[in-house]
Amino acid sequence: MDRACLEHRLTDAERREFDERGCFVVRDALPPALVSRLATAVDRLEAEYRPLRNLGPAQPLNHLDCIGYDDAFLELLEWPKTIARVIDILGWHIQLYHSHLIVTPPLPTDHESHSRLHWHQDSGRLNLDLESNPRPRVSLKVGFFLTDTSEPDRGNFHIVPGSHLCNALEFPQDGAEHPDATPVCARAGDAVFFDRRLWHAAGRNRSDVTRKVIFLGYSYRWLRPRDDMTVGRYLEDADPIRRQLLGESPTGGFGYTSPSEEDVPLRAWLVEHLGEDAVVR
Hints:
3-stranded antiparallel beta sheet; 281 residues
């Protein structure tokens, strides 16, 4: 892993924002050249899968396991301006458990919608099977924005700030939108970090620009992947830390819950560069 990532660790202000709001933005996380290369890969997949799924020109495309479909996406896994922040939040016992891209075309000019946005928390059954209130964090996502959503009504990622500490979201009885619904205004190249428990939704794209975003979900290694994770072709040439992040456990199934040093080389790397006292748990 690139030691340069240690220059981009979680700041005190970001930690407070993540703990209190459930979300923060890292501006200019990706350089323009990489944004362009990623957007080209997204366009290729959209051209292939939109007709296969019989999606109309204005319907969003949500493509799971995107990291396994183009080598360009793999670079984001350990991106220096994001990976250290992930580690500072979750620790060293982590993996990639989910990746997907979303393409949100503009709506027709005559489109009218009076319904609420589709508010949800991530991870499906975790929100039914876990009993605590609030439920544990378990995972987070990093959204890499490839198009400009710095103004509302561009298909913005919407959140209810602080709702990651609430198991349920209450709405007005008259059918109105949640009063605290907030669009996240991210530019192309920005990275948005959010707690999986945060109530969030995709906004409507009333602009003339198609929104493109790639999401990587990081979790503790004992959580089963949310995607099929067709990443086996990357493992042969991967270093030990990348193999960990891609879900490998050299000691077998037991290594996901009671890992040896061989299972979690990321921990040894952190101890080497930061010292034992700086590496918790």
